[in-house]
Amino acid sequence: MSYRFTRKPLESGFYEPEGIYLSTPFTGEAAILQYWGERLEYYRQFTYNGVALKGYPGIRFAIEPDATLVSVDNGRITELSIEPGGFERYIKIEHRWGESVYAHIGNSEVDTGQMVQREQRVAGAEFQKNSVTWFHFSIRIFPYNRYDGWGGFTDPLPFIDPSYLQATDQGFADNLPVDVTEHPVSMIRETKSMRRP
Predict the structure, then answer these.
(1) Across the chain, how many H-helices and E-strands are there?
(2) Is residue 18 situated within a structural domain?
(3) DSSP letter at 122?
């Protein structure tokens, strides 16, 4: 089974954490702008808990302007914060299998400590430059190690049920500006006093 916006086939029933697949973290169609682990040369200049990154620690999706961000599984909101120059506005949700992080988001629609259900709306999307709506999504699966060169994150794509992923209209991905699709997501350089999501 394959989808136009992925570069490799997805195998149904192969990877799911705790025996379940996650829903997509957004509503509507999407295109992947940046895959997990890409651009090692660029990301090795940034550290996570003092360890140089081995590549991009998540997936960057381009989504429809009216899309909303939804919880990939039942969980509890553990963090709502802003990392200026890095993840910007973000939400962290704790799940029975680990945690999910939504970054570069619009206004959140949840509060810290709140329980959320699978596919419940947690935030609005945020317009980025050139009127393209995109956001960063990543997951950590217990047990994880924040000093592994990935910040403890794991590639989320294999854990999303292929039946939830909609084949993207080729025009949606093809009409994205080149400077959005070709440039990596910038991160902020870590300092001793900062705390990464």
Answers:
(1) 3, 11
(2) no
(3) E
